[in-house]
Structure formats: C-alpha cells, structure tokens
User: Fold this.
Amino acid sequence: MIEAQDLTKRYGDKVAVDHLTFRVEPGRVTGFLGPNGAGKSTTMRLVLGLDRPAAGRATINGRQYAELAQPLRTAGALLEARAMHPGRSARNHLLFLAQTQGLSSRRVDEALDLVGLRDVARKRTKGYSLGMGQRVGIAAAMLGDPSVLLLDEPVNGLDPEGILWVRNLMKQLASEGRTVFVSSHLMNEMAVTADHLIVIGKGKLIADCSTREFISRSSEKSVLVRSPDAGRLADLIAAEGGKALAQQPSDGQAAALTVTGLEAPRIGEIAAGNRIVLHELTPQLASLEEAFLELTAGSVEYGAGEMPAAGAPAPAGTTAPGSGQ
Amino acid sequence: MTAISPPPASPSSVTATARPAPPPAHRTGFGVLLAEWTKIRSVRSTLWTLVIFAVVSLGLTGLFTWLTLNALGNDNNGARDSGIITDPVSFILGTGLGLGQLAICVLGVLVITSEYSSGVIRASLLAVPRRYPMPLAKGLVFAALVIIVGEIVAFCSFFIGAALVNGHEFTRTARVAGHAVTVHGTLNVSLSQPGALRAVVGSGLYLTVLGLFALAIGALIRHTAGAITAVIGMVLVIFPLADLLPGSWGAHVHAYLPTVAGQLITQDKPTAGQLLSAWQGFGVFCAWTALLFAAAIVLLQRRDA
Assistant:
C-alpha cells in the first residue's frame, strides 16, 4: 500500500505537488492520471525518496522509502526517464542492483526472462530501442519480487504488442495482491488497465475513485433524440423533469435534442405515449478521454486556449472545475 | 490469457510475504561494495582510461628520460638537465606520471558523473536510499583499483627510468662560490637509496588520493565536462600558479594546496625551502580530499536526485 499525506513539493515559487493526500490499495491497478506537467512524476519521486517534500510525507507499506533496509524487495519502480549507462549491459545493470539487495544472479536471469530480454542482455544498452529500454526498467522494478510497484508511463515507446504485454502484466501483478500504481497521461490506456483512478491537475487532487465512477461522475450522461416533432417532445421532457437542448438541425434530418436528466428508455416511453415519431434515440456515453478533459480543464499546465470537448456536445449544467479560466 | 509468464520465484500471491529475511546490515554493506565493483568493471571507459594512464605514464617516462639524457651530452644544459642529475628519482617519477595522472583525474570524475549523465544515479539511490553508503563504497572500490594499478605503473616507471639512467656518465659545469667548476659523474638510482622506495610507493598513494579528490569534485559538480575541467584546471594550472603568490604568506598558501602538498611524497629528497615533509604533505592532501568527500556526501543527502 502507498499512502501520501499532505504531500507538497515546490520548485522555487512554483508548486509542483500541492497538498496531495491519497492512498493506493493493494490488489488492483491504480491509474495515476493527469495532463503533462501535472506533477505525476514528481509525486512518484517523492514517494520513492528521490526528491524531498516541502511538506507532508509518503509511505510504502507504512514506512518511508528511505527507511526500507532492502527497498527493492518491497517496492519496485520504473521511472519515466531512462536510467541506464549506455555502455553497460542490461544484465550488469540488473546485477549491480541485485547485489545491493543481497539477491542472487539467478534472480537477475529470472527478471530478464520475465521481460523476454535474456538473449540480448549481455549487449550494451546503447543499441537498445526505447521499448527494450522500458523492458529493462520493468525487469529492474520486478527484480526484488516487490509487493508494491510504481510505474511511470510504462507503455511509452512500446509497440502494440508491448503495450498489451505491460497491460496484462500489471493486471496479473494486481491480481496477485500487489499494489500497482501506474501513471499515464493517456486516458484510454487507463480505461482498459486501471480499476481505480487518482487524477491530479496542477499538483492538486481532482478525483480519487473507481474508473467506472470517474466516467459517470465527471460527465453527465446525455441522450441524443431526433424527431420531426422535436418542439413538442422538448416540452414533454421538461415536464418530466428532464432537460432538452435543441441542436442545430443538419440538412435533411429531423431536428435533434440533447436530453439530460432522463434515460433513453424513459424518453422512448414518453414519445410512444404521446404518439411522437422518433428518428433516433441514442445514449451518449462519455469516453474516459472526454471525462478527463472535462475534469482537468483549467488545470492544464500548458493549455492551448479554449479546449472544446472533442466531438461531444458539452452537457448543459456540468461545470468543470475551474472552467472559468 | 496472453503471453505473460508469471513472475518467477513469486509463489503466486503476496501472502508470499514469507520472503527470505533480508540479510544483516554488514552483508548489505558488502553488497553495496560488490555492486560498485560491478558498476566500475562493466563499462569500457574504466579499462580504456587505465590503459591510457599506463601507456602515457610509462611511455613518457621512457621518452623524457631518454631525451633528457641525450641532451646532457650537449653543452646547452638547461634546468631540466640539472634536475635529472641532482634528483634523478624525482625526475623519473615526475615526468610520465605527471601527465598520466590526468587520466586518473578523468576516471575519478567519470565514475560518479556518468551516473548523473546516464540517469543511473536514480537506480542507485532507489537501491540504496540512505544514499551515503553508495559514494563511500564507490570511493573504496575505486581507491582499491587505482592503488593497485597506480603502484604497478609507478614501479614500472621507476624501473624504466632506472634502466635508462643507470650508468649514464655526465659532465656539467656548476657554479661553486662564483667559480665555474666542471663536474664529472655517473648517474645511479636504486630503490635502496634513501627516500627512493618511499617516493615510488608514494606515487601510487598520491594517484589514489588524486582519484578520490577527482571523484569528490565530480560528486559535487555532477557534470562530466565541468568537473573534468575543474580538476585538471586545479591540478595543472591553478595550484602550480599559486607559487607566484608573493611573500611567505603566498609560499604557505601554495604549500598547503591539495596536489602541491600531495606531490611531496613522490619526491625522494626535500627541495630547498620545503615547508612540509613528505608525509605531512600527503596528510594535507588526504585532509583536503576527505573534506571535499564529506561535502559531497552532505550535498548528496540533501539534494534531489
């Protein structure tokens, strides 16, 4: 388990991590989500004792990382930046790490087997691709068979096969009861990998909930309705407590409404009960990407001005935090 | 499912917290030493730098000694000629090793700055989060390596020089009480003459401490180019130039500078006006190095990695 208490880090007068408190539970994959520059890597470095926090503390299984006698046996980490000497072989890189932990060289070979690099392990890492480098990093993280894993953007630079492999590895590690904490700025990747999400923006906690809850909570579900009698339907919907927003009718199509506050079956019943013809009745499910953009709008470090939610009509009444930016 | 092999040696659940108990602390210390040895031997720059050190030191010792002996036959005897006559042991140990020492400086800097430039430092500190055992182990392993190579090269330098020098006859004019006197003599050096063995062994010791000095500077500066420039600038330019400082104040400052003091142990005879003895000078050099090393460790404990 990883716990952060009021964790804060400043670089000069810039606050990189702003009073973060969260808990990463074992037995599931916890995604650590945020736009670039949100403070994900800094948070991981604080948890791992590489950076000193300005305030607060972080613990792994109840102890600060620096207090762990042989830390790689408790926590394994893959950090975003490559951390290998180009002139040293992957095997020697893992070997020196193993020696600091009193681990045997047999364990090094096992870790190399796990990531499928045994054949090239004696070559200098200079010639490794980005994906091979990531695999060495994962082998290093797995070296001590740790119960806690922190992976910073592990799928960076991997091909689709590699991405699938990492995804399944993380799921398996979590199913074995380990704590898996994985950062990403790719929402869709997290949607298929993470059971739980911790979302930050500008160093602040935005959300800490299950992935499913995150999607439904952050974006109101809406239903697209098309009808030649849209005006009457809108009134009926409003009478039922729903909210209907007229959409710009496109050429040759019936007028459309975006309805929030009512589910599609209920709208269908209203229409049938009032003998209104429907041309379309489509529930609009927000993708994780949209949910994320909505949530972090206003907390993007380097925003490109107005950011329209891609394709989706912005549901009325939903105020994204800090959308006044 | 897909092609993921289960993590080996992990008995399928974390109830496997029945992991082997971590070995006691002294074993961990040994592990960190072992790890530093693995690091240093597993990059080619170590071997190449040491080869360059040996080739430059031995080659230049032979070349300079030979050239100087040849020049002795000519009439235009310079200061260097008189150096080889008045103190041949210091001459032999001062020429090749004087340049070869730069390779040791470079290696000392590289063993630590390459960790920063490649990012290995993060892996190292994740493995040793208390941090200070890492530079201590690195210093120990590096010192052990340099003292072995340094002593071998120092002895070989001496024997090469001795082989060239011994039996060489010379004639030179010296000024004694205002009169020009012609002196004839035969050069002869051996390890059994006073101070010679200490100077040869001392050369290896000097190189070892110099390597640690460079390592400490590298740990403080954390950038290869900057640290190499700083160390070589100090050893070759700044410290020797301090000799030009005026007065007895200047002479004292100069005498106590790290490598100026440290090099005294590589000379078999004290020079006129020498403020420190050979071993005192070595002690001063060790103190400087220990101070810088301590500063480097304090900063390592404090800084973000």
In short: Chain A has two domains: 2-217, 222-284. Residues 207 and 214 of chain A are 8 Å apart (CA to CA). The domain at 222-284 of chain A is CATH 3.30.70 (Alpha-Beta Plaits).
